[in-house]
Amino acid sequence: MSMSKSSYNYNRKGWEDAEFPILCETCLGPNPYLRMQKDTYGKECTICERPFTNFRWQPGKGARFKTTEVCQTCSKIKNICQTCLFDLEFGLPVQVRDHALKISDDLPRQGANRDFFVQNQERALAATDGTTPGGALATVGADHPGSEMLRRLARTGPYYKRNAPHICSFFVKGECKRGEECPYRHEKPSDPDDPLSQQNMRDRYYGAKDPVAEKILNRATALPSLQPPEDATITTLYVGNLGPAGTITEKDLNDYFYQYGDIRHLSLLPQKGCAFVNYTTRESAEMAAERSFNRAHIKNRKVTIRWGVPHAQRQAQSEYRVNPVPNLPTALPIPDELVPTKRGRMEFAPRDFMPPPAGPSGGILKVPRLAPPMGGYDQPGTSSSGYEGSSIYYPSQDPERLGAKGDVID
Ligand SMILES: [Zn+2]
Ligand SMILES: [Zn+2]
Ligand SMILES: [Zn+2]
């Protein structure tokens, strides 16, 4: 075999001889006792074209065999799985991640420049503890604002469907005689013009022209988010869709929501299938809202998250309601005289508030202070609102907190 010119520059000692591949959870499969075939320097890396230690395995019963596509250095430079080339932290395409984190590294893509770059990276990576990614990603901290979007886009667990066998080409032509025994999928192929069927490893690696990424990014722009209420004293979240009484216990809720900060009070309304989580600080409540909205799963149940709204506001809104609100919490009264009026904040005319809201599509949630929405208030509980069960708002439980903070937006 003749080697390409640039490969001559290599000292074979630089070739990696990895003990175990760098893989994402999905590619690894569900079985912890995995059998892998290891082929030392058995394959050329798709990106740097150097031989690397290749692995081949079947990630679970009925799954197709998987193999590593890029070498460990190339994988570390981008912090990606050696097989699917998705980001290891978020399980998302490089293009999506780099877009969210606003990074771009103009890696030299071929020839001596690329070889030189990869060699340098390799040296730099060897000097680290092996857990820090290289490239432009190394400059990005975990608290980067883009991380939030990535967390929302990310799958919360492995996605084994991606390991399914490829579609049987004989079946497509109506010629497969293997029937049940056929290891490939007997399914109608998706439209050949479907961009998803035209993926290219190198584009995926460099984060360019990746049809999957474009699809995910489009989804990201339509992704609903939960806007914190302007009233900074609100530190309570409503948690809905908890299912029949006993499904999710107070302890389950505590265990889940404690990760975002200290909980002052947690009240579960088993009959209503909802709960209110009152945090000691606004920061915790905001973090909990941001991180759990649209993605909180407790005991495999997707629960709904909304902001709670103080009593006075709720009362004000109720004057506008034509129908009685069916499922207001009854177990959690707060004496009216305790609803504070510091700085006159609770004395706004009723129309200064709209119901704590979720658009029918769960769009951006906002609490405007000045005018009721066109066409009047959305009435929680009516089918048009599409957020059944989430129309309950809970008075922030600690009156001393209300108005206690100086950062009230007026
Ligand atoms: Zn490589
Ligand atoms: Zn993978
Ligand atoms: Zn077949």
Automatic annotation (TrEMBL):
Residue stretches making up the RRM domain: 235-310
Biased composition (Basic and acidic residues): 181-191, 398-410
Pfam families cross-referenced by the UniProt entry: RRM_1, STL11_N, zf-CCCH_RBM22
Location(s) in or outside the cell: Cytoplasm; Nucleus
Protein name: Pre-mRNA-splicing factor RBM22
Taxonomy, superkingdom: Eukaryota
Feature: compositional bias, Low complexity: 381-396
Any one GO MF annotation of this record: zinc ion binding
GO biological process: one example: RNA splicing
Entry-linked SMART domains: RRM, ZnF_C3H1
Family classification: Belongs to the SLT11 family.
Region (Disordered): 181-200, 365-410
Cellular component GO terms held in the UniProt record: Prp19 complex; U2-type catalytic step 1 spliceosome; U2-type catalytic step 2 spliceosome
Residue ranges occupied by any C3H1-type domain in the UniProt entry: 167-189
Zn finger intervals (C3H1-type): 167-189
InterPro entries: Cwc2/Slt11, Nucleotide-bd_a/b_plait_sf, RBD_domain_sf, RRM_dom, STL11/RBM22-like_N, Znf-CCCH_RBM22, Znf_CCCH, Znf_CCCH_sf
Keywords: Cytoplasm, Metal-binding, mRNA processing, mRNA splicing, Nucleus, RNA-binding, Spliceosome, Zinc, Zinc-finger
